[in-house]
Design a protein that fits this description.
The protein has 166 residues and is an all-alpha fold. The longest helix is centred in the middle third of the chain and has 22 residues. InterPro entries: DUF8154 (IPR058467). This is DUF8154 domain-containing protein. Keywords: Plasmid.
Length: 166
């Protein structure tokens, strides 16, 4: 592999993102910004479940945190609290905004931010090791938050997650 080849591949990737997508991921072909975040959360949870079975625990932890954030963003957009261009730009910012609008209590939002800061970052970037137990705990948390938020939404029927125990 040469630097010329890498530059060519970067250009190919950039061009792919510049073109209008043709073969869109199933379930994500929606016009509504809130539903897009909801469906992304559903896909992340489905992916996390499949990855757990394959013992890719680091990816399960990462996908679980992102699923929580997409679920919160769905609710912020659905309620009209935020516009798509105004969504929080940081991970802790999502949790703070969730508390500000009453999705989570302040202590729960602070605990989620601490969990992200202290354990997600360590698992992904530093010396923390992913394990089956940690991945399962994060997947369970993300699934429960998703169900909690969807249960309070008028658009809960748009969720594409499988029914529990199905």
């Amino acid at each position: 592999m040469s630097s010329t080849r890498i530059e060519q591949l970067i250009g190919n990737a950039q061009a792919a993102f510049d073109r209008r997508p043709a073969d869109v991921e199933p379930g994500l072909d929606v016009e509504d910004a809130a539903l897009l975040q909801l469906r992304k959360a559903c896909r992340l949870l489905a992916g996390a479940e499949a990855l757990h079975d394959a013992a890719y625990y680091t990816l399960v932890i990462e996908a679980s945190f992102v699923a929580i954030e997409r679920t919160v963003e769905f609710r912020l957009l659905e309620r009209g609290t935020m516009e798509p261009d105004d969504l929080p730009g940081t991970h802790p910012g999502v949790y703070r905004e969730a508390a500000a609008v009453g999705i989570f209590s302040e202590p729960a939002a602070e605990d989620l931010a601490d969990l992200w800061r202290n354990h997600r970052a360590k698992t992904y970037y530093q010396d923390g090791l992913a394990s089956a137990e940690r991945a399962q705990a994060m997947y369970t948390l993300a699934s429960e938050i998703h169900a909690f938020v969807i249960g309070r939404s008028s658009q809960g029927h748009e969720c594409r997650c499988p029914e529990p125990n199905s």
